[in-house]
Specification:
Layout (H helix, E strand, L loop, with lengths): L28 H14 L9 E3 L2 H9 L3 H7 L8 E7 L13 E7 L4 E5 L7 H15 L4 E4 L12 H16 L20 H24 L10
Parallel strand pairs: 1-2, 4-5
Antiparallel strand pairs: 2-3, 3-4
Helix pairs in contact: 1-5, 3-4
Protein name: Ubiquitin-like protease family profile domain-containing protein
Keywords: Hydrolase, Protease, Thiol protease
GO molecular function, one term: deNEDDylase activity
Length: 231
């Protein structure tokens, strides 16, 4: 099930060993978790003033399925001072089914504005799930959130690119919107007229994975200047 990915992991980057299914039809929660870690390390580290959280799919799943608000709050990251949260949403309704569900969408919550923006590349197929995630997160935050489905979201042309769309929209909204403006500046969150090349995106992800693999190998074979320690 989605929870198999574990909690919001720390220090596990680069996790390229967790991506056996990237070239298959539908991306898994592990694939999306890798992409979030990549964005954190390669982009968010350059903006230390940003208070943005990329919630892992496993944590979104926990948020949606566990009705114990206090337990969920203790498991999730500390949202105090956070301005925005990205949540990958899956339509899996069977908590006992590994990698269940058949569709991904993206929920972007602006805590400072009290709005949850839902981006769905399959004509709002996940609106019910995204609304549920919004209600649960509102309880955790102790703050009302208004749900807003953006009908002008780019649409996929097949039944397998939803996860790719989530990853590319996440990066676009993070880099071109949230990190591209000054604090307090108004910005449109619409994705209208944004073209998404899903095939090119898959190729880019595989290239990133291969680059990380080679870098990992290079580090393993490069002699260290630190003398070995004897215990």
């Amino acid at each position: 099930m989605l929870l198999a990915d574990g909690a919001q992991e720390k220090g596990s980057y680069p996790p390229h060993r967790r991506l056996p299914n990237l070239t298959s039809l539908i991306m898994t929660s592990s694939n999306i978790a890798f992409w979030e870690e990549f964005l954190e390390h390669e982009i968010l580290t350059k903006y230390p003033q940003a208070r943005i959280i990329l919630l892992r799919p496993s944590m979104t799943f926990l948020l949606m399925k566990n009705k114990n608000t206090e337990m969920v709050r203790s498991a999730l990251p500390d949202f105090r001072g956070v301005t925005h949260i990205f949540l990958p949403v899956n339509d899996n309704r069977n908590v006992s089914l590994a990698e269940g569900g058949s569709h991904w969408s993206l929920l972007l919550v602006s805590i400072i504005d009290g709005v949850a923006f839902h981006y769905d590349s399959l004509d709002g197929a996940n609106n019910a799930e995204a609304w549920e995630a919004t209600k649960r997160l509102s309880n955790v935050l102790g703050k009302p959130l208004r749900f807003h489905y953006l009908a002008d979201c780019p649409q996929q042309e097949n039944g397998s690119d939803c996860g790719v769309f989530v990853c590319i929209m996440m990066r676009h909204l993070l880099v071109k919107r949230l990190l591209a403006v000054n604090a307090g500046e108004k910005i449109s969150m619409s994705m209208a007229h944004k073209a998404i090349d899903s095939y090119g995106a898959r190729k880019e992800m595989l290239k990133i994975i291969e680059s990380l693999r080679k870098e990992g190998e290079r580090r393993r074979v490069t002699p260290s200047n630190t003398p070995p320690r004897i215990e």
